[in-house]
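FORM 12-B: Structure-to-Sequence Request
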């Protein structure tokens, strides 16, 4: 065998090794991409399952509000914190807030809004900024589109944003707030409220007259409103593998017909600690 044949065989062997290496590398890359895609698909399925569970929780809350003397609703009202509900082998935590128990930023009494801001455990500069936003919107005859519009962008995903959304709304169009279902601590945030006023409001909640008809509450009428059937429902669901979703829906219940109007619906992100520059 000549030296030329040896060189040709060596070149062919080297070429085969290179091609084999390229094929092996391609196969490994394809395998890794397949695993990643499979993992992403599995994660997406888990999130979808968690969202479906949360939607089931929202539906259960709607039923609780529709049915008189529903035991789940009684548990939520008595607890004041999210209440567990079992569905499809999973635990879903349910809660709701009455929008009429909050001050409307666009229509609410300015003194009431300012007092509620003063009660909030946030920085004075943030309270001042929020009140300035309300006053500016009223001077310009514009509507604040949401409660979060009061806040700097860097605060809207923090726990502070939740505090604002628990006290204010833009959905009721009421000048005052409804005292129905409020704890005494919440009632005392109303400007000028006395112990006698609390008792009068309690008797009203037990079937007494509305604020407009109760002479004992005449001095508070500008701060009070009747109950509106607008509710903010929340359902927190988690799958066995750890996918978690908190679903929120704001609904309007019709008192005259079995109609439910969904005003908004969203997934809530976990509060984040974000520093403003």
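FORM 12-B RESPONSE
SEQUENCE OUT:
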């Amino acid at each position: 065998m000549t030296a030329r044949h040896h060189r040709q065989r060596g070149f062919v062997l080297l070429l085969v090794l290179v091609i084999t290496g390229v094929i092996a590398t391609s196969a490994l890359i394809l395998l890794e991409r397949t695993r990643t895609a499979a993992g992403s698909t599995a994660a997406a399925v888990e999130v979808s399952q968690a969202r479906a569970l949360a939607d089931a929780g929202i539906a259960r809350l709607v039923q609780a509000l529709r049915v008189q003397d529903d035991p789940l609703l009684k548990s939520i009202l008595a607890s004041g914190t999210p209440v567990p509900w079992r569905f499809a082998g999973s635990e879903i935590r349910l809660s709701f807030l009455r929008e009429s128990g909050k001050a409307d930023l666009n229509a609410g009494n300015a003194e009431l809004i300012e007092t509620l801001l003063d009660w909030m455990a946030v920085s004075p500069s943030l309270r001042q900024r929020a009140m300035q936003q309300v006053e500016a919107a009223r001077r310009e005859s514009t509507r604040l589109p949401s409660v979060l519009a009061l806040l700097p962008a860097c605060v809207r995903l923090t726990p502070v944003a939740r505090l604002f959304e628990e006290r204010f709304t833009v959905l009721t169009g009421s000048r005052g707030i409804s005292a129905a279902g409020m704890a005494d601590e919440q009632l005392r945030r109303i400007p000028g409220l006395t112990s006698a006023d609390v008792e009068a409001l309690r008797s009203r909640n037990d079937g007494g007259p509305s604020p407009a008809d109760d002479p004992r509450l005449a001095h508070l009428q500008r701060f009070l409103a009747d109950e509106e059937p607008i509710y903010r429902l929340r359902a927190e669901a988690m799958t066995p593998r750890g996918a978690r979703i908190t679903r929120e829906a704001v609904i309007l219940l019709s008192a005259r017909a079995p109609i439910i109007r969904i005003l908004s619906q969203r997934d809530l992100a976990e509060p984040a600690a974000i520093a403003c520059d």
